[in-house]
Design brief:
- Strands 1-6-5-2-3-4 form a 6-stranded parallel beta sheet, with helices on both faces.
- It is globular.
- It has 176 residues and is an alpha/beta fold.
- The termini are far apart.
- The chain has one domain: Rossmann fold (3-Layer(aba) Sandwich).
- Helix 2 links the parallel strand 2 and strand 3.
Length: 176
């Protein structure tokens, strides 16, 4: 079980993820987490660096947003702003369960082994992506603000990553 929590790649910031490397690995689809990966938790603003990364990715990858948010209007707003399809799943369809990943792959039109899941949560993004057969990339959260239950599991996530021998980069400052 613990091994399913091991990300394939860890980067300090989403913008540091090399798209040429993804392409060379056979990746053709990208699934992005919303909160604390693309934008601050509860927010709609995407930093210029992440926005530029997404724009470059859209040139050759099929990209979508997959979130566990219950605020679908905010998710839709971010998706429309970035020109990306976006979906929210709750209950048994949420990450790390298969339903959300299955729906995201329908949006990208890619197979799991040709798709990367990028997110800040080990027990949602990484665990779910690994269980579904995707390449997984873990990025540190971009903001200290987050859902209370997420905040409660952060210590356990760091423990698991350390136990797996993963180097944990410091989270970026709030302004990035």
């Amino acid at each position: 079980m613990l091994d399913n929590c091991r990300p394939d790649l860890i980067v300090s910031r989403m913008e540091d993820l090399d798209q040429d490397d993804l392409w060379d690995r056979g990746i053709r689809g990208i699934v992005l987490d919303l909160d604390n990966t693309l934008c601050f938790w509860g927010g709609t603003e995407v930093s210029p660096g992440r926005r530029a990364w997404v724009e470059r990715a859209k040139e050759r990858f099929a990209v979508c947003i997959l979130s566990n948010t219950y605020k679908s209007r905010r998710l839709r707003r971010v998706g429309e702003d970035l020109g990306l399809p976006a979906l929210a799943r709750w209950g048994l369809g949420r990450k790390p369960y298969r339903g959300g990943f299955r729906a995201a792959l329908k949006l990208t039109g890619t197979r799991p082994e040709a798709t990367v899941m990028i997110g800040d949560q080990v027990f949602a993004d990484v665990l779910g992506g690994n269980r579904y057969g995707m390449l997984t990339v873990w990025v540190p959260k971009i903001s200290a603000h987050e859902f209370i239950s997420t905040r409660l599991v952060r210590g356990l996530e760091r423990f698991v990553l350390r136990r797996l021998g993963c180097a944990i980069p410091a989270p970026p400052s709030e302004g990035t």
